[in-house]
What we know:
heterodimer; B: disordered C terminus
Amino acid sequence: MGDPLYAGGIGLTVVLVTLLKVLVTFVLLLVATMFMVWFERKIVADMQHRIGPNRAGPWGLLQTLADGTKLFFKEDLLPDRADRIVFRLAPVLAVVPAFLAFAIVPIGGNFAEGGTVSMFGRETFLQLADPPVGVLFFLAMSGIGVYGVMLAGWSSGSKYPLLGGVRATAQIVSYEAALGLSLASVILVNGTLSTHQIVAEQAGAGFGGIIPNWNLVVTGVVPAIIFLIAGTAELNRPPFDLVEAEQELVGGFNTEYSSIRFALFFLAEFMNTVTMSALVVTLFLGGPSGPVWGPEPVRTWFFPIFWFLLKLVVFLFVFVWFRGTLPRLRYDQLMDLGWKALIPLALGWFLLLGAVRVARNEGWNLVVTFGAITVVVVVAVTLLNLSLRAAQRQRLADAEVNA
Amino acid sequence: MGHYLPIVALAVLAVLFAGLSFLASRLLAPRRPTPQKSAPYESGIIPGKEPPRRFPVRFSLVAMIFIVFDIEVVFLYPWAMVHAELGLFGIVAIAIFSASVFESFLYLLSKGVLEWGPIQRVQRPHLVGAHRTAESTIRRVGLEGRDRPAEQRILVESGIASHAVEPAASAAGGH
Lengths: 403, 175
């Protein structure tokens, strides 16, 4: 279990291989973020019949670099009313977890043969770290990311950032519950919290030998969709970008930020988008696993990385597609979707999946099991509807008393 | 703990990256603050009111419900890991636990804790009724948006006064 690199104690080679992996991950993340910004601007431009960035570098590829460099030369404003220490600390709190969250994503390795690659004569996973609680580590990092947003809004000493920050906190916190519950289904099916193990579980041939053994299929599609929606909301990306609803909040939590501090928020946001896409791929679409051919280096290096990047780009496109197509939700619609639809659905689906698996293990009568499940589902949905109606009635009564 | 070594290294690198960015910005960027620039930004409007100190209590309620659900998730993960070994006992225990959380969630919902939007009232369609004939409709459309005293409009629409006595209506509609 765990990365075979650390199995035999920590020597000089191990430290060097680790440092190399850290450096590569770091550079890869920065390049991927740059690419994502360019990709998003190009695709959205296409969807709106514009050209998009096309001056800096071939096809405007270096536009992000140019923008980033420009921001270094811009004046760094510190508002009079701001809490000076927290105001400076908030961008760091946003960007460091964004870097760390990616550490648990496996980006390569032939999972039909153990998922390891050989580096300087040492076998290792092609992922920065594989802690036994990888999935929890990701949740923890996305939890810390909230602090960056909230403290930035609070410490600005200005109305609109404060409102944006409070909204963001309530939104992220609401969808974190749905995210965690949809993730529970994956853990239930795979029986592990390590991302490497989760990918390894999905690597084999699935139903009928044609459909891949991905969690998307095994958990029954619903958790994957909930995860994608909740993930979009976690990222504060459209259609859930109420945090920076410019008609209502000027610029959201980062209104008062300029120069490199703003750039760090921007970087964190797009880095989180890349990480979230990578995580959807890892948890539900089998990560780097896929058909591989050819001699040794091609089989273990090229094909897994190729499959991973291909799946990653699909989800990056989906996130941009959301932004290009869907109008922003109202705040009450956002809360209704999160609390009254996604969370009960995710919880219900998890329990359903668990009940079916236990019934299969214990060899219970399938008809009785499904009958019981149907009764429970009907009762739960009825109760949910009744309480929603009770709330409606209560509000109408209150409104009449006040009027 | 070897698994966490690369994470620590990456964290150090990320903090260094942020620190060096701040340093570079300090060296490269101009510093010419003016009172206008360091005032709270409100799209050019000079800030009059203080930022709000009090918030709708709903935000705190959402935070509290989140804690309930987060604790539920904390208990669900271990069961998800070992559900095969626990068998019947596990599923019954988790069902009872989920039912109790769901029940408190229902209580919160029925108390309207998660109702954010404006109240959805069933509007009585006042335009539809027995008093509404083709004639009255045409008159209404013709007069919409005209400047008339409110009492007169009510009289005309309820059929008490004739529209012929009204100067604005006769001028506009040419009755």
